[in-house]
Design a protein that fits this description.
InterPro entries: Homeodomain-like_sf (IPR009057), MT1864/Rv1816-like_C (IPR025996), Tet_transcr_reg_TetR-rel_C_sf (IPR036271)
Keywords: Transcription, Transcription regulation
Number of strands: 0
Order of helices and strands: HHHHHHHHHH
Pfam families: TetR_C_33 (PF13305)
Distance between the termini: 47 Å
Shape: elongated
Protein name: TetR/AcrR family transcriptional regulator
Number of helices: 10
Length: 206
Amino acid sequence: MVRTKNAAVRNQLIERAAQMLRTREPVTLRSVVAGTGLSTMAVYTYFGGMDGLWQAMRQEGFTRLAAELNSVTPTTDPVRDLAALGAAYLSNALTNPDLYRVMFDAGFELEDPAAADETLHCLVRAVERAKDIGRFRPDVDPLVLATQSWTIGHGLASLLASGPLPRHALDYGAPMLTALFTSCGDDPETCSRSVELGWRPETPAH
């Protein structure tokens, strides 16, 4: 008899494993189901084993990131939108710090690599729009600039989510993005206004 998989159980196991990472508990086959009322067979049923659970955690991290980026409504100011996408990236990382750490563990394949790639292409499209209206020089490579912008966000997110930097370090993002975008041809004053409008990361309450 084939059993129907329950999405709630699958999510429960992913959240349980993430919580264990947060509290620095060893994530093992037995520990991940302890106290859940599930047997170790559930990990095999839903993920095919522990490797599959780690893979699913990576994918869930990108799924939540994609949802956060998709919540950014495009405006007529693509430079503001680039900053807003960076802020959304930070917000997602600080809301889901445990899944965020797992997202970039290349030791486990993603279930849907294209969905992860799409999170970067959101930035690429914003850069292309900025080029189209003359905010960036024609020779700017959209993928390169999108990657550079992502690097700034990722660096801040990693240091903030892990704790070395205080939350007010979020303020560093706006001047770094402004410097990057003006180096690509944007007018400094216009760029600064655009970035300030977009760079408004939402952080979870302590």
